[in-house]
Design brief:
Layout (H helix, E strand, L loop, with lengths): L1 H9 L4 E5 L4 H13 L3 H6 L7 H12 L4 E3 L8 H14 L4 E5 L1 H6 L6 H18 L3 E4 L22 E2 L12 H4 L3 E9 L8 E8 L6 E8 L6 E3 L9
Parallel strand pairs: 1-2, 1-3, 3-4
Antiparallel strand pairs: 5-6, 6-7, 7-8, 8-9
Helix pairs in contact: 1-2, 2-4
């Protein structure tokens, strides 16, 4: 999601980032690493091992000088009305055109509730209603159900061979509203390698309200040095 955020900013859009699994320092480090085109993990451990102090300062200025970024300083779950208040502030007061929420399950995971599905329904309904009434695009990250964990096992008779995990739009964890209320659903499918090293990743369009194409789109890898997305153009990139 930080890669998407940097691309939106490069295109001149003001964005809001609601990253609930990490603090603002870590999120900002991701943006710096993306701007510098260096490996994020190496940058996080030792910034000066991959970039000079001067380069880091210049990247910091590029990210902050145009007032294109609003970050929510919050970790973990929050009441739905609080989430909506933060989203409304980012859009109506700060002027954000894109908001990235990572991830929806964490919004309600720590709340005192006995019905996670209902809470996600309420959150998605509120978010969808707000998007319909305002000029904003909300990108919501969602994990998959544990019931689909068998997809991470190799096909019978093909143990020891690379294979793709088949992710469906119905795989979204929590509630059918994630599928029903979304305008578009982009699925990320990892390639599982026999030695469990990092494989490729496949984009798949699971739903598009205004488009006309569904199915596998692009296949990509992450460059280990620049941490950039690199499209895979090999003939077998669809896994067929």
């Amino acid at each position: 999601t930080s890669i998407f955020a940097r691309k939106f900013m490069d295109a001149g859009h003001k964005i809001g980032m609601i990253f609930l699994e990490e603090g603002n320092k870590e999120t900002f480090q991701r943006l710096l690493a993306s701007d510098l085109k260096v490996n994020y993990l190496k940058f996080k451990r030792d910034p000066l091992s991959v970039a000079s102090k001067e380069a880091i300062e210049e990247a910091y200025k590029r990210i902050t000088q145009d007032d294109c970024l609003v970050m929510l300083n919050h970790f973990g779950s929050m009441p739905i009305d609080t989430l909506m208040a933060k989203v409304k502030h980012m859009v109506l007061v700060e002027g954000c055109k894109y908001i990235l929420l990572d991830h929806i399950s964490l919004v309600i995971s720590g709340l005192e509730s006995e019905n996670e599905r209902k809470d996600i329904d309420m959150a998605m309904t509120s978010l969808a209603s707000f998007c319909s009434a305002n000029d904003v695009h909300l990108c919501v990250v969602c994990h998959i159900n544990r019931t689909d964990s068998h997809q991470f096992l190799p096909p019978k008779g093909k143990e020891g061979e690379p294979f793709w995990v088949n992710v469906r739009k119905e795989s979204a964890r929590g509630s059918a509203s994630l599928e029903q209320l979304s305008w578009n659903i982009i699925l990320l499918e990892p390639e599982i390698l026999p030695d469990f090293s990092r494989g490729r990743v496949r984009f798949k369009v699971g739903k598009t309200r205004f488009g006309d194409s569904l199915g596998v789109a692009d296949v990509f890898t992450l460059d280990p040095d620049t941490w950039e997305v690199v499209l895979d153009t090999t003939e077998d990139n669809n896994g067929f």
